[in-house]
């Protein structure tokens, strides 16, 4: 199993910036734009609010990764209601990527129609989702107070995300 990786202070500052295309606006505006950009490709959502809004606007994620929280407060959304075929559970502490995350998120994405319930925090699992997602798919996460960030997964994006992982440090 890979080691648990920890966010460095330098990387924390870098990750506050959008890692893809920021789509600003109200949820209806954001998800109209997301729907156009998707063009039938697989959608992977990371975060409770973005998953809730995607479902509410008729978009069915191939895989959704949620932790039951929004802005560090409990969030009561519908992630279990759409009848996911596969539900995975993962422990991932804040500011880390657990060693188990790679296998769990990878399997959820390979299987599809999957919900990953995270105990802890799912924020950094966007990185894992991008690296596990097939090229041509889309990863979507929320940018609090602004909108959503759309990442079109391709070889160059995966290379940049591997560099992010390389800049993290193993948990001691």
Question: What features would you highlight for this structure?
Answer:
single chain; 172 residues; alpha/beta; 3-stranded antiparallel β-sheet; 12 strands; globular
How many angstroms does the end-to-end distance come to?
15 Å
Q: Tell me roughly what share of residues is in helical segments.
A: 25-40%
**Secondary structure: number of strands:** 12
Encode the helix/strand succession as letters.
EHEHEHEEEEEHEHEEHE
Structural class, by secondary structure, is alpha/beta
Radius of gyration: 15 Å
- Which strand order spans the largest sheet, edge to edge or round the barrel? 2-11-10-3-4-9-7
Query: What integer is the average pLDDT?
Result: 92
Number of helices: 6
Total of domains? 1
Question: Quick one: overall form?
Answer: globular
Uncertain parts: none
Mind summarizing the main beta sheet? 7 strands, mixed
What fraction strand?
A: 25-35%
Describe the overall structure.
By secondary structure, the chain is of the alpha/beta class. It has one domain (about 5-165). Helix content is about 35%, strand content about 30%. It has 6 helices and 12 strands. It has helices at about 10-15, 25-40, 50-55, 100-110, 125-130, 155-165, and strands at about 5, 20-25, 45, 65, 70, 75, 85-90, 95, 115-120, 140-145, 145-150, 170. Strands 2-11-10-3-4-9-7 form a 7-stranded mixed sheet, with helices on both faces. Strands 8-1-12 form a 3-stranded antiparallel sheet, with no helix packed on it. A two-stranded antiparallel sheet has the order 5-6. A hairpin with a 2-residue loop joins strand 5 (about 70) and strand 6 (about 75). Helix 4 (about 100-110) packs across helix 5. The longest helix has 12 residues, at about 25-40. It is globular, with a radius of gyration of 15 Å. The model has no long low-confidence stretch (mean pLDDT about 90).
């Amino acid at each position: 199993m890979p080691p648990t990786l920890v966010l460095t202070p330098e990387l924390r500052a870098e990750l506050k910036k959008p890692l893809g295309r920021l789509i600003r606006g109200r949820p209806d505006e954001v998800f109209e734009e997301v729907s156009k950009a998707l063009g039938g490709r697989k959608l992977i959502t990371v975060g409770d609010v973005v998953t809730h809004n995607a479902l509410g606007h008729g978009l069915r994620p191939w895989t959704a990764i949620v932790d039951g929280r929004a802005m560090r407060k409990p969030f009561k959304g519908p992630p279990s209601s759409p009848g996911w075929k596969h539900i995975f559970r993962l422990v991932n502490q804040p500011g880390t990527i657990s060693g188990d995350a790679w296998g769990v998120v990878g399997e959820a994405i390979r299987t599809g129609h999957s919900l990953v319930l995270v105990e802890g925090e799912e924020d950094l699992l966007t990185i894992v989702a991008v690296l596990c997602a097939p090229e041509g798919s889309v990863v979507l996460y929320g940018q609090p107070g602004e909108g959503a960030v759309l990442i079109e997964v391709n070889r160059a994006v995966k290379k940049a995300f591997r560099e992010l992982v390389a800049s993290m440090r193993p948990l001691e």
